[in-house]
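User: My collaborator sent over this chain with a note saying "see what the structure looks like." That's all I know about it. Can you take a look?
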Amino acid sequence: MVSSQTTALNDMTPADRHRAIAAGFAGEVAATDDWSAQSPVAEWSARDVVGHLVGWFPEFLAAGEVVLPACPSVDDDPAAAWAAHAAAVQHILDGDDPDRDFTHPYLGTMPLSTAVDRFYTADVFMHTWDLAQAGGRRPGLDEGFANELLSGLAAMEEVLRSSGQYGPVVAIADDAGPVVRLAAFIGRDPEFGDEVKLPPR
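Assistant: Without extra context I'll predict from the sequence alone. Here is the result:
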């Protein structure tokens, strides 16, 4: 999922984009030693970052009558939970009819792959930052995709802020890159991970 990848995330199909972004998140899962470590989101630990993704998306799909199989408990094994969950989502996108109509009671009707891509895969991308920073790491996220997400979010900033799901914009240097600007826009302190002290390996 780094910016030097052969095919940029922006140019991928929804299935391939999810595969790449989920693999990047899995890399951060594998690198996590302390699941109780504080993340850049005040009320979340590293474990809670995984729990958020594994928890909200099955409910989102179920509202449109798409059912994901249950995955292992995040409390017991965050890595196993993520692996099972990501595989289940990928199965939808690699299936026989990923573009079938998906109707959500609040969002209307769209292709299922579009719903996954727009509302979930982008969320995994952004939360990869959170999980990495909880361990004091700076993830090598795709800058072009970060810039695209930032443009889309900025266009509906008033709605996002009023939802309470994003904190206030964090001040950053004028020459900050797209990934840092995206993190700052959604209320993350880009210097958070610099303060994390990793335990000895």
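A starting point for your reply to your collaborator: Confidence is low (pLDDT under 50) at residues 1-5.
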